[in-house]
Structures are given as structure tokens and as C-alpha cells.
Amino acid sequence: MRANLRENTFFCAILVLLSKTSGQTCGGKCAACFQVAPHSSSMLGGRALRILSLILNPGATLVCRFKGEIEREGFIDAEGRAYCIAPLLYETGWIPFNVSTDGLNFDKCAEYLSVHPSKADRALEVTLVNATQWQNYGTPHTAGRLSMTWNSSLIGAEKVDVELWGYREVNGSAELSYLYSLARDLSNTGAFSFIPEPKEDYSDWVLGNIRITASAKSEAARDVQALWSGGHVLAWHLEQAFRDNSSAWAQGKCLQWDTQEKDLPNFLNELIDCPCTLAQARADTGRFHTDYSCDIERGSVCTYHPGCVHCVRAVQASPLHGSGQQCCYDSTGALVLTGDSGGGSTPDRAHDWGSPPYGEPPRVPGYSHWLYDVMSFYYCCLWSDFCQIYLNHRPSSGCRNYQPPRAGVVLGDPHFITFDGLRYTFNGKGEYHLVSSPDRGLSVQARTEQVKLKNGSLARATRLSSVAMKQNSSDVIEVRLAEDNLQVLRNKKILLFTEQRWMDLRGVFVFSPSPQNVTVIFSSGVAVELRVREGAMAATVLLPAEFSKHTHGLLGLMNSDPSDDLKTQLGGVISSADATSEEIFTFGAGWNISNASSLFTYDSNYLVDAYSLQPRHDPAFVPAFSLPEGPDDPLVADMLTMCSGEGAHFCKYDTLTTRSLAMGNATLRAFQNHQALTENLKPVVSCGWLPTPRNGKKENGTRYLEGDSLSFSCNEGYVLYGSTQRTCLHSGTWTGQQPCCMTDDYVGFVLGAVGSLSSLVTMGVMIRLHNRKQDRRRKVNPDQMVTEEQTC
User: Fold this and answer.
1) Is the confidence at residue 786, as pLDDT, over 70?
2) Are the C-beta atoms of 767 and 737 separated by less than 8 Å?
3) b/e map of 468-479 (b: 16 or more CB within 10 Å)?
4) How far apart are CA 301 and CA 308, in angstroms?
5) Of 483, 6, 509, which Cα lies nearest the Cα of 495?
6) pLDDT-based confidence at residue 497 (cuts at 50, 70, 90)
7) Coil, helix or strand for 610?
8) Is the pLDDT higher at 608 or at 749?
9) Which structural domains are found in the chain, ordered by start?
10) Parallel, antiparallel, or unpaired: how do β-strands 40-42 and 108-115 relate?
11) If we measure between CA atoms, which residue out of 282, 190, 251, 225 comes closest to residue 681?
């Protein structure tokens, strides 16, 4: 029956047949659920979305209603294919819309993915040739023509208009508005250049985009088929005063921003602390993601962070103000702080990805970040020499309160390493609770299937074939094995990663840099990483420290005690020290899921027959509990050479049960990767940043972790009081006292006025009072850099 379902209703029908509610636009009062192609558009809109399987007469009515409130006319081409134009939105994520073919009943449904402008398909953009010239035009050595290019075939018209649209946030509202046209009725050659002139009437608009539309459309028409450039600083149209003296003009803007920033609420205290090391930052994929402007994998072009090789940004915006964290690291792996370097980490008042409810500033994806954090950097640091003002408002957060996540993994056929490090093998066939945390609303479930050998027979072993997960009210995400690739489903519908690597969904991000690599990130900071090698799927679960003592399932109770990780669903504990393989198998089988708790998709007869009926654990399947190793086995010699080290047992088991050296090697590599991940996530102690004494020097580097020592000295003519060297202890405190540099004349004055003994007491009191003041400040924000209070 399923094989006969029409393409446009396939998933809806499956949901109905299985009595599952997906929460998508296929449900409710909608008479027909359609897919669209392409499935995504920049949140700026202007992309034609074809409604698949909907064929109409060319003169028919077609009205598209987005989010239940934004109505726009669609169009029908000569072949009767129906299209809706994606509208301008100030949000990302899946956008539902309804379609009416009579102007009255909106009984046809679909949805598309609205994406961050920077993540849109580059082939659909207007390219600003030499973007640096565009964004700095008017500063020294930037004069000349500005050029842009586009794919002329995507407009479908002989004549086009080139328009400038500006963005601003006024009275709590986001506004992207038409400003003026650069060219009208221009031949659609795919290229245009011009010499910009200052626009006194529009110089208050400092951020915007170029838009290209067919000339047949009315000037400034919204939500029409169009191509957009990326958002950029509109330096090229600023007033003449900027071109006359860009530094002085920017200085005034910087000081104006300084005043405005002081009136805004403090956002620094609500930011997550940075990881202390580069290794931690790259491993904590649930809470931090690579900042592509400073990426060690792409050559570390860190223009805005000189001296650094890699930066990361917090995945989630802060809950109260929608702010973002940034953390940058040098070639030694040390966190770089603005107290030591202008290239240090700088947080953001507005998270670059935005955050719900999105349309309210400063939560608009991309644009709010540019207005609050990037424009000020241009004013203070790029166009003038007032960068210290910028750094005073964007100080590094440090890492004293950072706690790395804990990692558990399922790999091979399949083997488990719990969050507390217990290793065991469970070859059950069925569906099981991998991680269950009811009071945290988290459920991660695993499905296993019997391994098929190359000769077509079935092995006495299983492998991971699918992982389904959700937290609280998030979308349900399932990642399943599809030959040598991974397939991602959202609420039982397949997601296609043909245009985007990132998808911003409800309560969850999904990142798929390749068909063999998927990371699912929940708003709590939980991450589930899926990888496939040699047909074997490995799943790593990363849990923040807040989940300690709140986990159950096959990956154990996360409490730093491996002895209780074999806790059954009924509450009993099997001793891991002397448990037999059969006892462990019984333990694992007990964590099978129920029909009511299942998050999996059953969209084929095979899956329905094999998994959707009770029990979810197949009691008829009995795996190999010991290594099937024979003296005459030709695999043994090569296996013994390959399988060595800590993961040797897992490697041997998989090689022999699957009759594949490649499979055993894949298991060994997955094990080694997990060991490296665990090593990178080891906690480290930070004592917090120490300032350089005024009129002095801080030597021996800028590292502030356990065992690091710093030396201090004074400039000529100054005497150092306090400690000349301080060492970071395991307790997270520094030895000694904060050093101060004072002049010989000042010290002589004190000695002469009150006597040597009392002067020394006075000096000690001054230093202690200063250090107490510093300690009080650190308790409020442990690593915040405030230059006014750094020294005696």
C-alpha cells in the first residue's frame, strides 16, 4: 500500500497510517500537504518556491499565506507549475505556509527553511567584487569603481533594476527598507559597476544590501523574485565628512556609541564562560562552534583577532538578552584575553545567529549583531584608533567557571563506553534507551540491526542503525544509516542537506558538514555526534555538567563512578567488576523502549514488522558472547597486527564477527577518536587573569592555568611592591600578592613623612585594599577586564 502513495502526500499518509502526529503543516485542517523545491530561502526572501505536484491553469488564482498572516500572490508558469515567493522575514527556521487556488480556502500546506543570510546559497547571491573596498570606501586608498556580479539567468528578464536597501532598528522594531536605485532598466548582463557618490540624505543608514529585480516589477516592491547581496557596511554612500576625514568622523561615532552603550543593560554576566584551551573549545561541540572568520582548519585567517589561530562562538544565545560569546586561542592553545591583547576574545551584545523571538531587536539574525557589535568595531578599531573604548565594552570573559561536558559513545558492533568510562559490549537487536533523563526532558534512543556479511549471511552481532532524540518540546531528530551515508529526519520527515550544512529547528540545531557526519545540538548544550565509517555508525553523546546524577540508560549514570553504570531500568545494579557477557546482555535488553516512548520512524513494512511491535528487544537473537577465534583462521594474523592498544578487544571482536579487517580497523579508529575526545575534555584549573602593573611589565607569557607562573617587574624609576612572581595553584588561586609599581620619589615622600616602619605598614594596607577590591570585582565577574581598576 505504501508503494502506491503519491509523492506529495507520502509522509502525511505514513503519519496517518501509523497514527503519529508530527506537528508539521501536514496535519490539522489541511487537505493536501506538498513539498517545495528548492526547500530553502534566505530570510531576505525573493526566492521562487515551486509547489511540487501542484499543476494549475496558467490563468488560475494562486495566493500564498505565510505564517498565517503574510499574504502574497504566487505565480503560475506556462507549464502550469505553481510558485510562491519567499517573503522578507526577520527569523530563521522552518516557515509554514498555506496556498489557496480560489482566493478563499487555504487548504493546501507546505513549509520551507528560512536561513541566515550568510548561510544562503552563494550561487543565488549578488557578489560584491572586492568586498573590502565596498566596506571601507571613503577611507584612504579605497577610491575607484565598485563592481558587482550575479547569475543573470536567475532573474529571467532582459532588463533589471539595481537597488540599495538599508537596515536599522528603531523603537524596538527591525526595518529593512528601500533607499534608492543605483540603476534602472539595466541590461541583464550579470555585471554592474559604478563610482559611488556621498548621500547626505541617507548617511544615517550604515548597514544594508544590494537587491536586483526584473525591471517589470515596481520600484521598491516587496517580496518579489530577487537576488540579494550579503549585508555590508555602507561606507560607500556615507556623507562627505566621512570622505574628508574618515578617522575623525569614525572617532565621533565611536564616542557616540560609547555613550549609548553605557545606557544599555549589562549582558556580560549572563554569558557562558569560554573553554580554557583550544582542545576543549573544539571538543565541546554542544555549546561552541567554529567561528569561520578565524578557523584553524581553513588557514586561520584571523583578521579581527591578530595573534590567534582559532575562534569559536557559543551556539546558543544568552536567554535574557540574546547575547553571544566568542573565544579565541593562540598557537599554543591558550585562551587570548583582551586584557593582554587587542586580538583577544570579544563577546557580542547580539548573537550573530539571532534568537527567538527573532523579529525583536537585538535578536534579528545577522543584522542585530552587525549593528551592535560589528559597526562599533569599524568605528573604534578599523577606522579610528579608539579600540580601547570598544574593548572596554567587549572584554573577554575568561574560563574560571567553565566545566567541560562528559562524553559517552556507542561504536562498532556495538560497544559502549559510558560517561564514567566503563566499557562493555551489548549486541542486542532492537530499540533501546541510550540516554534517558526525564527531569531534564532528554531522550536519546538507539536502534540496532543484525550485521549482514559480504556473502549475504547474517553475523551473530548487531550494529547501530539509527538514533532518535528530542529534549522537552524540541523537534524529534532521527539520524539513520543509509548504506555508507547518514540520513536525517525531522519529525519523521527526511531533511535534505543539499544547500545548507546548518539547520535551525525548533529547540535544536542540526549540522551536517558531510553525508557521513551529523551533529545534533539541543538548546541545553547537549550534543549527539553521529559518524559512519565502513558501514558502521558511531554515536557520541556530550552532556553538560548539569546532567550529573540525572542520566539513565545504556550510557550509564553520569556521576564519576563507573561501578554503578550497569543500573537496570528497575533500579538494580549489576557489578561491572565480575559481570559475565550474558549478564550484561540481560542488562542491556532491559533498557528496551516501549511503543509509547518510541521516537523512531516506521516508514517501511520492514521497520513496522521488525521494530514497531512489542517487545522492542528481539529475544530470539543470541549474539556471540566470546571471540570466535580459531587456530586456522586466516584473519587472525592480520588481526593481531592491526588490533593493538586499549581498543584491541573491540577491534578483534568486530574483525572476527564481521569477517572484515576494515570493520575492525574502523572500530579501532572510532575508539581512538573517543579516547582523544575524552583527553581533550579533561577539566583544567584556571586562576583567572592577572593585570600588568601600571608602569610595569608582565613576563613569562599570558597563561593562567594550574602550574603557570608569571613574573612582574617595573619600569626604570619605579619600585615594585607585592610579589615579583605568582603561580596558579590547584585550588584556583594565585600565590603572592598583586604587584604595584611606585616611584622612588613617592616612596621617599611616604618614608620621610611618617617613618619607615609606618610607611611600610601603610604600603601594605594600600596593596591589600587594592587586592580586596579586585577580589570583590572578580566575584561579580571573575575574568572581566576593566582597565580602570587594574593597578594600584
Assistant:
1) no
2) yes
3) bbbbeebbbbbb
4) 9
5) 509
6) confident
7) helix
8) 608
9) 2-115 (2.60.40.10), 122-243 (2.60.40), 245-393 (no CATH), 406-680 (no CATH), 696-789 (2.10.70.10)
10) parallel
11) 282
CB distance 210 to 135 below 8 Å: no
Cell triple for residue 420? 564514567
Nearest 5°: CA angle at 553, between 547 and 555? 70
| Distance (Å, whole) CA 641 – CA 627 | 17
- The answer to whether the beta carbons of residues 395 and 338 sit under 8 Å apart is yes
Could you tell me the pLDDT band of residue 24, with boundaries at 50, 70 and 90?
very low
Greatest mean pLDDT range, 34-43, 252-261, 652-661: 252-261
Length of the chain: 792
Rounded CA-CA distance 540/408 in Å is 6
Q: Which residues contact 109 (CB under 8 A, 6 or more apart)?
A: 25, 26, 28, 30, 32, 33, 34, 96, 97, 98, 99
Q: How confident is the model at residue 499 (pLDDT cuts 50, 70, 90)?
A: confident
DSSP 335: B
User: By the 8 A CB rule, do 678 and 407 touch?
Assistant: yes
Which pLDDT does position 389 carry in this prediction?
97
User: What cell was used for 523?
Assistant: 538548546
Q: Which residue carries 596593596 as its cell?
A: 767
- What is the rounded distance in angstroms from the CA atom of residue 60 to the CA atom of residue 50? 15
All residues at 6 or more sequence positions from 221 whose CB lies less than 8 Å from its CB, including other chains: 213
Identify which of 519, 541, 533 has the alpha carbon closest to the alpha carbon of residue 416. Answer: 541
Distance CA 691, CA 676 (A): 34
Cα 603 to chain centroid distance, Å, stands at 30
How far apart, in whole angstroms, are the C-alpha atoms of residue 240 and residue 203?
A: 9
178-190 core/surface letters (b: 16 or more CB in 10 A; e: else): ebeebeeebebeb
Distance, in Å, from the CA atom of 426 to the CA atom of 634, rounded to the nearest integer, reads 26
139: nearest Cα among 248, 51, 292: 248
Q: Give the pLDDT confidence of 709-766 residue by residue, as tens digits.
A: 999 999 999 999 999 999 999 999 999 999 999 987 665 555 555 555 454 455 555 5
Predicted pLDDT of residue 778: 44
Backbone phi, then psi, for 599, in 5-degree steps? -105, 0
Residue 569: pLDDT over 80:
yes
The whole-chain average pLDDT of the chain stands at 89
Q: Express each pLDDT in 334-345 by its tens digit.
A: 999 999 999 999
For range 504-513, the mean pLDDT: 94
Amino acid at 360: E
Q: Kindly state the cell numbers that stand for 3.
A: 508503494
Half-sphere exposure of 281 (CA within 13 A, CB side): 31
| Rounded distance between C-alpha atoms, residue 417 and residue 424, angstroms | 7
Angstrom distance (rounded) from CA 404 to CA 471: 20
pLDDT at 753: 52
Closest CA to 311 of 287, 282, 338: 282
Strand runs (DSSP E) across 559-649, as ranges? none
DSSP annotation of 305 reads S
Asked if 471 contacts 437 with a C-beta cutoff of 8 angstroms, the reply is no
Cell digits of residue 388? 580601547
Distance CA 24, CA 34 (A): 11
CA distance 527 to 508: 10
Distance CA 65, CA 84 (A): 9
Nearest to 279 by CA among 335, 241, 226, 320: 335
What's the mean pLDDT in 622-639? 83
Give the pLDDT mean for 146-158: 94
CB atoms within 10 A of CB 117: 18
Residue 22's pLDDT is 34
CB 35 within 8 A of CB 23: no
Say if residue 428 is exposed, middle or buried (CB neighbours under 10 Å; 0-12, 13-18, 19+): buried
* Residues 209 and 179: beta-carbon distance below 8 Å: no
Global pTM? Answer: 0.88
